[in-house]
Amino acid sequence: xxxxxxxxxxxxxxxxxxxxxxxxxxxxxxxxxxxxxxxxxxxxxxxxxxxxxxxxxxxxxxxxxxxxxxxxxxxxxxxxxxxxxxxxxxxxxxxxxxxxxxxxxxxxxxxxxxxxxxxxxxxxxxxxxxxxxxxxxxxxxxxxxxxxxxxxxxxxxxxxxxxxxxxxxxxxxxxxxxxxxxxxxxxxxxxxxxxxxxxxxxxxxxxxxxxxxxxxxxxxxxxxxxxxxxxxxxxxxxxxxxxxxxxxxxxxxxxxxxxxxxxxxxxxxxxxxxxxxxxxxxxxxxxxxxxxxxxxxxxxxxxxxxxxxxxxxxxxxxxxxxxxxxxxxxxxxxxxxxxxxxxxxxxxxxxxxxxxxxxxxxxxxxxxxxxxxxxxxxxxxxxxxxxxxxxxxxxxxxxxxxxxxxxxxxxxxxxxxxxxxxxxxxxxxxxxxxxxxxxxxxxxxxxxxxxxxxxxxxxxxxxxxxxxxxxxxxxxxxxxxxxxxxxxxxxxxxxxxxxxxxxxxxxxxxxxxxxxxxxxxxxxxxxxxxxxxxxxxxxxxxxxxxxxxxxxxxxxxxxxxxxxxxxxxxxxxxxxxxxxxxxxxxxxxxxxxxxxxxxxxxxxxxxxxxxxxxxxxxxxxxxxxxxxxxxxxxxxxxxxxxxxxxxxxxxxxxxxxxxxxxxxxxxxxxxxxxxxxxxxxxxxxxxxxxxxxxxxxxxxxxxxxxxxxxxxxxxxxxxxxxxxxxxxxxxxxxxxxxxxxxxxxxxxxxxxxxxxxxxxxx
Length: 762
Prior knowledge:
Layout: H1 10-16, H2 23-31, H3 34-53, E1 73-74, E2 79-82, H4 84-96, E3 100-104, H5 107-125, H6 134-139, H7 153-168, H8 170-190, E4 206-210, E5 219-222, H9 223-226, H10 228-242, H11 246-257, E6 264-266, H12 268-284, E7 288-291, E8 296-298, H13 306-322, H14 325-353, H15 355-359, H16 361-382, H17 390-403, H18 406-424, H19 428-444, H20 453-476, H21 480-512, H22 517-523, H23 529-537, H24 539-558, H25 563-572, H26 600-620, H27 625-633, H28 641-653, H29 675-690, H30 698-714, H31 725-742, H32 750-761
Parallel strand pairs: 3-4
Antiparallel strand pairs: 1-8, 2-7, 3-6, 4-5
Helix pairs in contact: 3-16, 4-12, 5-7, 5-8, 8-10, 10-11, 14-18, 16-17, 16-18, 17-18, 17-19, 17-21, 18-19, 19-20, 20-21, 23-24, 24-25, 24-29, 24-31, 25-27, 25-29, 26-27, 26-28, 29-30, 29-31, 30-31
């Protein structure tokens, strides 16, 4: 007997058996993984953002403008509310009666005073009336009363002599100058308001005068004190009281009556500030109305108008102030419970049906960010009423449907609608309408091949919204016209959402790295610069790409994959060959093979390099990532079999040759990650191999397709793309059918048959 460890007893063997972990243990192990913990933290942060932005600790006001309450709504608390109408009236009155600000420009008054003194000096120097300047003398003549005859020459001379006598009297001259100083000095300070401008309201009783010297503070005056008519009366009284004679006072007043200038101009900026100050004082002490608990706010069966809604807002605000912290904590827990439930539901769906979203952090963050933004935009647009919150919900649903899938869009849209409805305080009826509208849009949004597609989706959603809202309103007991009015608004927003989606579609494609059929059709244009360059440099490769595209599109559609995406990917999958076209057999027109002068390892490097070169060219020309994925994955990690066999044969014939490393003869990969990439791999291989068939009969084509498919299956090239064996069979059948159609038999003409007959006879 051989020595070894002691034999274990039966109980020890049973105890040593390790069983696989149960479901909860497996879940705990999965959760403890780093990426999962990170995603849970991100989900928690998103929930906190939603909770904070929607004030998830407070119940929302569940009645909006235009709603028709089914029963009377009474105040829940005692509160005071601002009487907005009365406050607005008082505010406007305060602005109308606010003090206006005027700028004083005294230069005109200073110049007038100087002119008057100069004119008096000239008149005093004239010896007779004839020597006096008639223009100056006439300006000092008072207006004659009606029906009063003009004075004669002698009377005028007598008036002039009396006027001159006063001017020549030294005491009188000083008296005149002192009187003019006492008249003009106050006017230089306070100014003259010639007329009230349109901007100045008649209800303003006083004004602020801004002196020309900025160092002095403005002073206040009553409007009637500086108006031109008042100033004229003051000047007349001053002259009559202080002039040496009434005749002299009359002459001077006649001179000044029409010459007194307006020197005050309205300062619009400072006046606006004064009006705003007056309005702010009213805002600080607005008119309030006291409401007692139990007072009627809104009547049953009548739409809620803005005045009633303001009362409801004030009542709700007071209610929230009195709400205890226990109620707020309870609601917070309920909201986070809702978030956890929706996270769990949507997370398990993604885990089962859309695992790539959870596996790629960027995709996961993109979806979660879109959810948060959609809810926040629903809350914001809800404040504007008229059911505008349907716009962000529709945009979200259509975005997810375009970027990922319709089922995922339906699930996430329902979750967003539920969060939005609870956050805004609307009823289950609105949730049904919003969900139905978004569902209608998502269902018809299968492919986007034309620019009018999204607009058509908007019209379909509008029809669903119209009918659903009318039906829900009827069940709820709303008036038909009220339901119809809301339904028309919903329909309008749905059409607008479709139009907006058309505008933001390029940004959606860029952010989520997805290509719609519309962008693929534009990308697959033969006039694309890369394709034109491929035609010029490598016409054989271009022809090969066109043939592969035709085969791959039909094969992809046979399994329900995106045929158009595969076709466009096939156009670009070999663009890397244009850098060294002569090393690829389809471009060797002269029969010379450049690989004859290279060792197999070097030839392999040249062949493999076209994948990396193609990806670099694609990135330089800003091709989308899905197309770059086709370039990198269409060979997977397959073996460059021809040169590998050459290297093996050389090793067998020459033992001194180095060992052949199979990995150095394989493409770098990655393996196909999507069904479309797998279809392109098979189509590319089959199209190339079919060219060397001597007689491409249907049976030979079928054997060729089976052989190439079996090789790639056994090589594990389809392990990461999700293809089933049934789908592999359908792809093969499609390729056989397409190639058979290409290499169908042809009728031989007599001149083509004669050589054969001669050969047989010979």
